[in-house]
Amino acid sequence: MFDRVLVANRGEIAVRVIRALHELGIEAVAVYSTADRDALHVELADQAVCIGPPSATESYLRISNVIAAAETTGCDAVHPGYGFLAENAEFVRACDDNDVVFIGPPADVVEQLGDKVRAKEAMAAAGVPLVPGSDGTGGLDALRAAAAAAGFPVLLKAAAGGGGKGMRVVAAEDELDRAFSAATAEADAAFGDGAMYVEKLLSPARHVEIQVLCDEDGNVLTLGERECSIQRRHQKLVEESPSAALDATTREEMEATVARASEAIGYRNAGTFEFLVGPDGAFHFIEVNCRLQVEHPVSELVTGIDIVREQIRIAAGEPLAAVGRAARRGHAIEVRINAEDPARGFLPAPGRIVQLQLPLGPGVRVDTAVRAGSEIPPYYDSMIAKLVVWDDTRAAAIARTERALRELAIEGIPTTRELALDVIASPEFRSGDYSISTLADLEHRLPSLASP
Ligand code: MV4
Q1: Is 4 exposed, middle or buried (0-12, 13-18, 19+ CB in 10 A)?
Q2: Using alpha carbons only, what angle is made at residue 229 by residues 345 and 351, rounded to the nearest 5 degrees?
Q3: Which of 2, 175, 201, 382 has the fewest Cβ atoms nearer than 10 Å?
Q4: Which residue owns the Cα nearest ligand 1 atom 6?
């Protein structure tokens, strides 16, 4: 096992990883920008290294600084968390070159799956159902033919994109030209790669993902699904497991598909396979996330497996204790609390938290790095806490989520707490019958968003 691990992240996920390290008897080394000098992750770590000024590109994203921090403190491994360098193949290679274990999949796997077209090719070869669309990237003519074959409306997607970045809906043939030029330019500017592909737009659709763990011997454990359809502008707001969209047969088919695909591509460590589930209940692969995800606690609560601990054990060469399907029990719901102002179109609203009362009690977990007096810096993600709740049934978990959200009190900055309360109270959420467009449809009649 490792003696000392660098935590290459900040905020709640850095704290989450430090906790797992300490429980394994491993020393944690934090990195921080000058904006995070007084942050909780710095305080909880055994050592901390300043890696630059507030701007993420000059600190948390700067590979040379992160590697230097690992080297100078004698770390055996690096945990990247999510975001920042978590899915950066160049960073994984830099770790390899410096004999620091990257806690995640190998560089070539990260690189292959980062290219969404290569990922789809690999999935097709493994017999994973895809959304109809182009076989690869192409110029306007190739994409026009693929779009016509799939049928409009289509989605134009950037091969280097993901998570909704560089995506465009094209309603009809005569819009393809303009959309293609704009999307190509945008993707080129954002990713340095303008390559495009098309897919038929699946609608209404649900966003359902499967969590997987793979050890260094190639053993695979699937931990079931997370339903992530409640989102606005590609930011998930509520996640839950199990999903009301899946019956037992479909769930097993999805998990068997993911297990087979993981073996086929030589996947290692924790990963998430994203699918769209159509109105007919059929599932279609969209992408793989080669990292620990924000919503991982939902799967932890229904399986009892500490995913971060398993990531560390796997990276140290230890085998999975169980393979196949992880046993699960009950229902888990996660609500993200963001420092955003609903009165200003959910613009990030950094500032000082004056008062903080976190919910406690049975079945309640809060992952956060903020406390009373914390200054939320404007440079990073606006998510400040995750409320994660477990209970025996979905109805009980919903009641518990409402109870915990009401207990939560944050003063000093606006947050998405009230929006979350409204969503949880909505008949759409309570019925379990919702899709990725439900929140947008709901917004105009939610009390928290009513004009004063
Ligand atoms: C789609 C889709 C519908 N049809 N692809 C968004 C994130 C990225 N992982 C893939 N995404 C989607 N791909 C096809 N062929 C719907 C989404 C999608 C979405 C689209 C618009 C607005 C919100 C969305 C939320 C989740 C998924």
Answers
A1: middle
A2: 35
A3: 175
A4: 164
The vertex-103 CA angle with 129 and 111, nearest 5°, equals 45
Closest C-alpha to 272, from 209, 315, 189, 202 = 209
Domain-terminating residue out of 200, 218, 240: 200
Query: What CA–CA distance (Å, rounded) separates 404 from 80?
Result: 30
Q: Which of 200, 230, 250 is the last residue of a domain?
A: 200
How many CB atoms sit inside 10 A of residue 379's CB?
17
Q: How far apart are CA 425 and CA 432, in angstroms?
A: 12
Q: Are 194 and 99 contained in the same domain? A: no
Query: Which of 117, 207, 237 is the pocket-test mutation for ligand 1 (most atoms within 8 Å of CB)?
Result: 207
> What residue numbers bound the domain in which 176 lies?
132-200
Residue 276 Cα to ligand 1 middle (Å): 8
Q: How far apart are CA 338 and CA 350, in angstroms?
A: 10
- Number of residues that make up the chain: 452
pLDDT, block means (10 residues), the chain with 452 residues: 99 99 99 98 98 98 98 98 98 98 98 95 97 84 92 93 83 93 90 92 97 98 98 96 98 98 98 96 97 98 98 98 97 98 93 98 98 97 98 98 98 98 97 97 84 56
Dump strand ranges (E) for 54-103.
77-79, 101-102
Mean pLDDT over the full length of the chain: 96
Number of domains the chain is built from: 3
Q: Which residues are catalytic?
A: 291
* Per-residue pLDDT, 57: 98
Q: How far is the CA of 116 from the centre of ligand 1 (A)?
A: 13
Output the domain CATH number for residue 254.
3.30.470.20
- Domain match, 311 and 327 both: yes
CA distance 197 to 157: 5
Both 99 and 211 in a single domain? Answer: no
Q: How much is the pLDDT for 200?
A: 95
- Beta-strand relationship, 47-52 and 27-33: parallel
Residue 126 covered by a domain: no
If asked whether residues 155 and 279 sit together in one domain, one would say no
pTM to 2 decimals? 0.97
Query: Do residues 176 and 210 share a domain?
Result: no
| AA identity, residue 71 | E
42 domain residue, yes or no: yes
Dihedral sign, Cα of residue 326, residue 111, residue 297, residue 166: negative
- Placement of tokens 């710095």 in the chain: 42
Q: What is the pLDDT of residue 292?
A: 98
Distance 132 CA to ligand 1 centre (A): 14
Same domain for 85 and 161, yes or no, is no
